[in-house]
Batch of 2 targets.
Target 1
Amino acid sequence: MLDYHVHLWPHEDKATERELTVERLSEYCEEASKRGVREIALTEHLFRFRRGREIVEGFWADEPDEALREYMAAYFDHHATADLDLYMETVDQAKAAGLPVVAGLEVDYYPGRMDRVASLLDGYPFDVLLGSIHWLGTWMFDLIDSPVQQREWDSRGIEHAWRAYGQALEELAATRTTDVLAHPDLVKVAGRRPDSGVVREVETRIAEAAATSGMAAEISSAGLLKPAREAFPSKSLLQRFSDLAVPVTTASDTHGISRIALDVRHLHDAASMAGYVSLRAFSARVGYDVELGPVPPELSK
Ligand SMILES: [Zn+2]
Ligand SMILES: [Zn+2]
């Protein structure tokens, strides 16, 4: 099994260099291995890094809603403090020490700026890049504890939000900047779903965007802990991925060590039930298959 979506810092914390040591990364690997995971991808958010902020600085400046505009500016002030070079050097040292880690990032969609994002990322030896839609413009729809963000669900409407998500995801996939669609149906995170016809329509767009762009998709246990109460993607979307031969990774989306490899058994069974016999791993941004196999012994307990 793989955990191809691992963050070092919880959102509420400032990025600290304490996590950026080979010793600390070896604890991540050890914990993952106890839970049946043989390789992890470190995929910190691009917006955690000062270099990331330089590229996307002020994309929120034209947002007419003052509360949303200021929220995004404050979000970047809080998050964008880490050093990308140090992050990459530490992952490199961990690999050289024989730890089963690969170097990744989780990259948001910045309309009109993805060329600049891509040229920044091309300068680093990444193994895998996750592509994510957490925001629709400046609306951070997945911040379920923020009244400022959640009130937008009512003013914009659920159907509108779902379709806008499908559109943004298609645009992100078409840029071919990233390798794996993270939490592919994150739009359901708050548990707000339109009628089944609209769900089907948006799921079709997501699956076709992955297939057309050649991206893989992740199966993430993070949704089980959210009001959505199911993995990302839904069973029906995972089946669509399978029907279109879209490769899959498995992921916890842990922020810090505590939830690494969370519910990996659930992810194994979801992949297997959808007809997958392999998972997609990456090295130097080239995908290759690893056998899904039976439930690893650590997981059958
Ligand atoms: Zn994410
Ligand atoms: Zn994440």
Target 2
Amino acid sequence: MPRNIIGAPADGDDFFDRERELADLLHKLQNGNHILLKAPRRVGKTSLLHRVRDVGPTHGIVANYTSVGDLYSEGAFVNRVFSCLVEDLSTADRLLARLKRAGSGFFEWVSNLPDRVDELAIRELKVKLRASVPANWRTAGDELLSALVAVDDPRVRVLIVDELPVFIANLLLEDPTQRRARTFLQWFRGVRQEVPTTGSIRWVAAGSIGIDRMALRLRLVDTVNDFQPYPLGAFSHLNALNFLQALADTEKLTLSPQVAEEICDQVQWLIPYYLQMLFGAVRDLSRAHGIEPTRSLVSDAFEELLGEDYRIQFDHWSARLEDTLNPADVRAAKRMLTLAAVSDREVTAEDLATALPDGDSTDDEFDERLNRLLDVLSSDGYLIERDGRWGFRSPLLKGYWRRRYPRSRV
Ligand SMILES: Nc1ncnc2c1ncn2[C@@H]1O[C@H](COP(=O)(O)OP(=O)(O)OP(=O)(O)O)[C@@H](O)[C@H]1O
Ligand SMILES: [Mg+2]
């Protein structure tokens, strides 16, 4: 039964549902597809990918998971992939033997490792990988992946790279000429396509900013168009109700169907993250007052979540804008969010455009910037467009933003 835990990816018994998505993904991977898992922040991508890794072996799949959003160089990317491949000792053994046999020029220190690697040797290897970045990352990456292809394994090998778009954004920040990001994307396309055939290897790239849109802006669509997009959505209404009941069962809390409906009404965007959050606040209030949850308690819990005590759960929504936008765009995006937050109704793109300084940009430059920011704010789960009008996707996030950034302060 799932526990009411917010923040870390949901693993094991805490992972709820996603049966259809899981079956879809496993099926697509078995059929030889590379997948681009797309969803706004906090929808549950990492949790689902952990699940793919955990249940993979019973479907003839061995999946390695890694997250690359904290990396700023291509060499570090290659090393991180190496690190995640050796997570599993049987792969490590065979992969390292291959690299030794091939007399790898870039991982030549591999030849000094003992013949049979154990946990300790793997730990040392990972420390080494963190400390040293190959100067010629392309050749290092090619050698590594060739060795992986040569590893004799009847299972489908899946390399899951979470937060890939943030990594590409990092390369763009490191090198605004875009050269490094382009070279990397072209190389990455190559390793998915080139001989020796990578027949048994599939890649899953995940992230909230669409890497496909990013590639479009870099005019490099052909470097990612072999990925099959797989958008991940919210829970269905029924699954959201079932999830709330399962959480209540774990907590031995009586949750009437009306109260569960009220939670869904208030959360609106039924992703497990917000359901967990409001459920947790309802449970706390119910315990504090020694009463069973009622519909009005749900409203009180909603208000409670917008108070100082819970601010830390929302602050990352503000901070995360800085991960992928430059400082001027962060200021503009925050102003746009404030405009949407202080309005009781949804707003138009023209309203939001008033948040952008004109400067001396041409009309085209202005429109390009506005569209790019709307793209980031919608793909990251802040705003959504319905019938030509823009509003917050989550009433909780809207409430937070309204209190945190009253108009006068932005
Ligand atoms: N299937 C699930 N069952 C239960 N809870 C879930 C599930 N998926 C997500 N959650 C909840 O939502 C939170 C966010 O999930 P997760 O970290 O997987 O999302 P994400 O899409 O990877 O987010 P980010 O874009 O910020 O990396 C988790 O901490 C957990 O509380
Ligand atoms: Mg994640």
